[in-house]
Each structure stands twice: as structure tokens, then as C-alpha cells.
Amino acid sequence: MELAQVLDNALRKAAALWVRPAGHPPRLVWALWRDGAVHVAVGGTGQVVPGLADGVDCTLTVRSPTTHSHLVDVTATARLVDPDDDTAAALRSARLNGRPDWDSVYRWDIP
């Protein structure tokens, strides 16, 4: 099975993943896999990921949906996006610790 298919299968089931911006420690974040990208809401009083900014290279660590063990690390680039209403609503509902005051959504394009 090729990497893209493995990632797609794992990220469809993942509620969270580890994000490590270049030069910073990894953070576990609530995430949403949608339209070929991982969406994460950060900022405000919600999730904080030091070093995460538009254009920053990151490493995403994805766990296996069945064993919950390490599956793969992939390199991605953070992109600040303005999500459509459906994506924003799905992201808010996917976050177990979601707050109504989230103010930014970053998108990582998986190569």
C-alpha cells in the first residue's frame, strides 16, 4: 500500500496527531482530515502550537488507527486558510475540547 493511501486511511479515523514545527517540540493537537489536508484550529484560549505559522515546515506524526502506535512521520508545510462554513463547523465538532473563541485554522498540505 502506498504512503498516500496509508495516510488517508489513518487520518480519516484520527481525532488527533502530533505537530512539530521546525525548531520546536511536538504538540498533540485535535485535527480534522478533509479535502486532502489536515485542519487544526489554534490560537485564542484553545490549542497553542509554538512556532506554527504560515509557511513553516512541520513534521506530522500519525498513529495507527487500530494499534494506536506510531505509524508514520510526514513532512508538511503549514498554510493559514480561511475555512468554508462546513469545514469550520466540522473542525469545531471534531475538537473534544473545542471552544467557541478559536480564531485561526492552519492547514497542512500532505505531499
From TrEMBL:
It comes from the Bacteria. This is Pyridoxamine 5'-phosphate oxidase. The lineage of its organism: Bacteria, Bacillati, Actinomycetota, Actinomycetes, Pseudonocardiales.
